[in-house]
Amino acid sequence: MLNFILHRAGQTLIVLFGVTLIIFFMLRVMPGDPVALMFAEGDDEDIGAARAEFERALGLDRPLYVQYFVFLGDILRLNFGNSIVRGGEPVLDMVARALPLTIELSIYALLIALVIAVPVAILSALKQNTVWDRGGTAFALIGVSLPSFWQGIMLVMFFAVWIPIFPVSGVLDTRLSITRVTGAPFTDAVLTGNWEAAWSVLRHMTLPALTLGTGICGQFVRVLRSSLLEVKHQDFIDAFRARGLSERAVVRHMLHNAMPTTAVIIGLRIGALLSGTIVIETVFAYPGMGYLLIQAINARDFPVVQGVVVLLTAMVIAANLMADIIHGMLDPRVKLSGGRGNK
Questions:
Q1: Contact 273/219 with Cβ under 8 angstroms?
Q2: Distance (Å, rounded) from C-alpha 206 to C-alpha 213?
Q3: Which of 326, 106, 279, 87 is nearest to 205 (CA)?
Q4: pTM for the whole thing?
Q5: Angle, CA of 335, 336 and 341, to the nearest 5°
Q6: Domain regions of the chain by residue span
Q7: SS3 call for 96
Q8: pLDDT at residue 182, as a whole number
Q9: For the domain with range 91-342, which CATH number is right: 3.40.50.720, 1.10.3720.10, 3.40.50.2300, 1.25.40.10?
Q10: Which of 172, 224, 257, 269 shows its CA 20 to 30 Å from the CA of 126?
Q11: Tens digits of per-residue pLDDT, 76-126?
């Protein structure tokens, strides 16, 4: 296990290095100049001098390879720089405000996906080749196929315009406030006993979480159903039934043996949730990491884009690593050594 973790940690460092290289130079070769957004175009000498001084202060007048190594050294010191557009605000402070919101939204979406996917997958596996199974398969196919942005817009139309049940943007009603403890609004509202604010946050998160959750539950249904069908025809399941175990107990044993593969998929989707909320947070104006990234890209705010992308990549890789470790813990047949799983 230790060798596996060390091997994956080495791979993580290589991937992170590649990401920093790609994002740094991609931002520099794209058209547009962040400094030009802050200074009027023209031949005015005062403006030209101020612009040159600003570029020197940011280090943008140095060669690209020098800027990259400075950026890499700052990352190693966990210093992601300051925003160019937002008055020099530290990137980590901006991420500290946005990340808890994205984490809460991702957890809520994952719970929605599991609540929907597990019963549907169990019913489809137990009622194989029946109308229930075909319905579950069709539901999974629709969930995988629907574009998330279109689904989000449709949910807004149904549950915010035609039937105004949920709000369509923001995190909290403007008349309410939450005492900051962890930075995650729902968690802070619960910790401080502010139940009205907690309900407001939950309502604001419902539509984006439902969009994310239904988008991934289709994949959960397909994987869990396939794993359950594989386990269902094993001899030990017939032995359990021959001993007179209740159907509920048999299903529990089936789930226990089907979970290793599903756990890997869930772990992979957690990373995808954290990094895949960009479109959804933009549609619902939810001020998480994805919304912050889009704003930074539009403003050509290099330090913010670089910091958000690197941090999201690190979280995705960490989620994948945890999924592999949990897989090894759930399935004793898997030997985690040297980065290879051998059965």
A1: no
A2: 10
A3: 106
A4: 0.78
A5: 70
A6: 2-76, 91-342
A7: helix
A8: 87
A9: 1.10.3720.10
A10: 269
A11: 888 888 887 777 788 888 888 888 998 889 889 888 888 888 888 888 888
